[in-house]
What does this fold into?
Amino acid sequence: MDIQTRKTWLMPSMALVAAVTIIFGFLVSREGFSTLREWHSIRPGLSACGAPWALAGPTMFLAGLWTLLSSGRRPTPLWLAGVSSIAAGGTELVGVLTRVVPCSGSS
It folds into this structure.
């Protein structure tokens, strides 16, 4: 694959990655902030899960914006978004496995 073809595919793919990161960052932020807002009426374990979500969500959102504005030329925002998504997903996984995060289904 020659350089020009590679550059042609790089811009749309980075824009797609940035858009998905922005969307997931917004969703994680919304869930984290709503969990923290209701901390007094939910279980302590669930409100403890809200803190990493409230930190990881805006980090993902800003990293997505940074990737979009820098046209994907810098790896730093991609690393930030990746680490933040791993932190948010790990918090979700631990919360579900310890039955802190409520899941739908029969119990």
The chain is about 80% helix and 0% strand. The two ends are 53 Å apart (CA to CA). The CA atoms of residues 8 and 18 lie 16 Å apart.
